[in-house]
Amino acid sequence: MRGAHAPGLIPLARAAFSAWIDAAGAEGRSYLQLHLRAVATDRYRVRHLADRDADAATLETIADPYAARAVAQTTEEGAHRPLKTAPDLRRGWSFERLDGHGLWTVLDYLYPASAVHWYAERERRLRVTHWSETAARQSGMYSAVKLLPERAVRLAVPACCGDAVCLRRVAWGWSGDVPAPIDSESAGDSESAGDSESAGDSELSSHLQGSSVPCPEACSIFISFARAILPVERSPRASVQGLDALGELELQQIEALVAAADGTAHAPRSGEFDDPLNRRRVRYLGARLAALRQESAGELP
Ligand code: SF4
Questions:
Q1: Interatomic CA distance for residues 225 and 219, integer angstroms
Q2: Ligand 1 and 148: CB distance under 6 A
Q3: pLDDT, tens digit, for every residue of 214-228?
Q4: What is the pLDDT of residues 252-294, one digit of tens each?
Q5: Could you give phi then psi for residue 148, rounded to 5 degrees?
Q6: Which of 160, 171, 233, 236 is deepest in the core (most CB within 10 A)?
Q7: Residue 47 C-alpha to ligand 1 middle, in angstroms?
Q8: 169 CB under 6 A from ligand 1?
Q9: Residue 215 and residue 163 in contact, taking contact as beta carbons nearer than 8 Å
Q10: What are residue 36's DSSP bridge partners?
Q11: Cα distances (Å, whole numbers) of residue 18 to 62, 97, 109, 123, 210
Q12: Would the CB of 164 count as within 6 Å of ligand 1?
C-alpha cells in the first residue's frame, strides 16, 4: 500500500484539480511556482507565477504539453534540477489552451505526483511514511542513515526542506509513535521563501510561503543529505571558545566558508552534499549553531 495515497482516485484528482482552477475564474490559481487559469471550457493556460501578467509576446508560447519535460529539466542558468519542487523553475514560457489531459501532463512533468498528493490530503487520504520507516528500509550505502539521531533529523529537515530550497510541506514525522510533521521552517532556519533563488519579487515570495502541497515521505535528496551529515554528526567534537563543542568536519566547513567569503568560491551543485559550501550543508551548519546558541543561552548565569 506504500505510495497508494489515493488508489484508483487519479481520475478524481484530475477532475478536482481542474474544477479548482475553473472555480477561480479569470483570477486563476497560484500553485507552487505556477499560475493556472481557465481560459475557456476545458481549456487552460499555465505560466510561471512570476510571468502571470507578462505580455504574451514576451513569452515562448507552447502548445505541446510534453514540452514541459524540458522546462522542468534546467534552471534559468542551465543547471540540472534534481528536485522538481525546488523554487528554481525557469521563466519565460506559456502553455496555452491545454485541455484537461494536457494540463495534467504539464503538471506531472513540472511537479511529479504533486497534484495527487494535494488531492489526497484534501480528501484526508494521504498516506504518510515517517522517517524511522523510510530510514529502516534503506540498503547499501544509504543503510547508515538509520543511525542519524532524532535531534539531527529535526535539524536536517529545515536545512533540506525549507521553503527556500523545496516548496513541498513536510507531512512526515519522526516515527509512528511521534507522527507530528517535522517543522521545516524552524530550528534556526534563518532563510525563507523570500531568499529563494527565483523568488524575484515580494508578491511571488508571499505565494511561495506556506506550501499547499504535502511531502508524504522523505525523498532521495533528503536521504542523500542525511547520509552526508552522518559523518558530520559523528566526527570528534572539540570545545571552541565562543562556539561551544563543534565537530572536526564542522570546523573544516567554517574554514571553507570563511575562505569563500572573498567571493572567489565556486558554486556547488545542489546535490553535491560532500561540498562544505553546498547550500543545504550551509543551512544545516546554521541550524546546528542556532541550536547550540539556544542550548548555551539556558546555561548563562
Ligand atoms: S523530503 Fe524535503 S526536500 Fe524532499 S520533497 Fe520532501 S520536503 Fe522536499
A1: 10
A2: no
A3: 999 999 999 999 999
A4: 888 788 877 777 767 777 778 888 888 999 899 888 888 877 7
A5: -65, 125
A6: 160
A7: 23
A8: no
A9: no
A10: 29, 46
A11: 20, 13, 17, 16, 22
A12: no
